[in-house]
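Translate structure to sequence.
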């Protein structure tokens, strides 16, 4: 039973820093050895790859481009009439993934078109999504990459998003039937849409390729007040044999990486400080291939 491995989501953490190179340096100096980022496309891939190497980091996840955000787009995979744009964005994502050594790409489904009724267009959007996913699976296989589908909750975060439950995503994956397409489990979204996290994790974990975490409902770090029992959930992921990364995709309460500047109460009730006052590599919070070994104390 391997301890969990954590990755810093640079689209959310270190918001006080203006660009990805600076956030890469901050993640590296905070003890991470893995990061993820939604859209790295504002920076040349070679420059990002160099900055990641210099920071001692590896990229583990990026997203396909969102489309035209000024027109309200948030992914194109299931959007009728945008198949060509989705495939162009996929090619761009593959180029970046190869340059960055990133093994996974989140294939964003996108939103129900403005003014359309979700129920009325569901069948058409699923047909488009299946077609695009079959194409994507072939492209990704040639580059030895994995594509991920992430349900995003429609109750709070994005009411128009097409893919919003793990059940819907798993059914689509089954219809596509390609082994290099997997499920992305964001516990924040799953809790809001369906709850039943124990049952859903146990049912769907065999097809999960990446996990992300944030507290509910405020989307803060796992230690912030909320309805999720992260000691239990982290232990459950370990017990079920999850071996991928756990992405820290949340809104930090302060600047940057809050666990580095404030007291963290471990799951047994002891209080200790991470990184703020300790030399690096501190023991027992040692740097290693899994990023921060929080599991040593958090999970026992």
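Result:
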């Amino acid at each position: 039973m391997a301890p969990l491995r954590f990755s810093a989501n640079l689209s959310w953490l270190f918001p006080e820093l203006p660009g990805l190179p600076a956030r890469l340096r901050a993640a590296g100096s905070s003890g991470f050895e893995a990061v993820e980022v939604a859209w790295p496309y504002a920076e040349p891939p070679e420059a990002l790859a160099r900055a990641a190497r210099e920071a001692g980091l590896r990229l583990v996840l990026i997203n396909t481009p969102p489309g035209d955000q000024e027109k309200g787009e948030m992914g194109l995979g299931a959007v009728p009439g945008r198949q060509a744009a989705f495939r162009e964005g996929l090619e761009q994502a593959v180029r970046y993934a190869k340059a960055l050594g990133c093994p996974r790409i989140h294939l964003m489904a996108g939103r129900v078109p403005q003014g359309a009724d979700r129920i009325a267009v569901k069948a058409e959007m699923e047909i488009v999504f299946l077609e695009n996913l079959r194409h994507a699976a072939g492209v990704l296989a040639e580059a030895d990459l994995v594509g991920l589908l992430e349900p995003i909750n429609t109750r709070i975060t994005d009411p128009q998003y097409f893919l919003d439950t793990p059940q819907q995503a798993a059914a689509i994956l089954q219809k596509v039937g390609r082994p290099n397409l997997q499920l992305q489990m964001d516990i924040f979204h799953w809790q809001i849409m369906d709850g039943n996290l124990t049952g859903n994790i146990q049912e769907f974990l065999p097809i999960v390729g990446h996990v992300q975490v944030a507290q509910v409902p405020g989307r803060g770090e796992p230690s912030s007040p909320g309805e999720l029992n992260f000691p239990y959930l982290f232990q459950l992921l370990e017990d079920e044999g999850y071996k991928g990364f756990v992405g820290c995709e949340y809104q930090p309460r302060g600047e940057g990486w809050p666990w580095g500047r404030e007291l963290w109460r471990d799951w047994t009730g002891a209080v200790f400080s991470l990184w703020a006052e300790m030399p690096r590599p501190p023991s027992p919070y040692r740097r290693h291939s899994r990023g921060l070994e929080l599991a040593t104390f958090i999970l026992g």
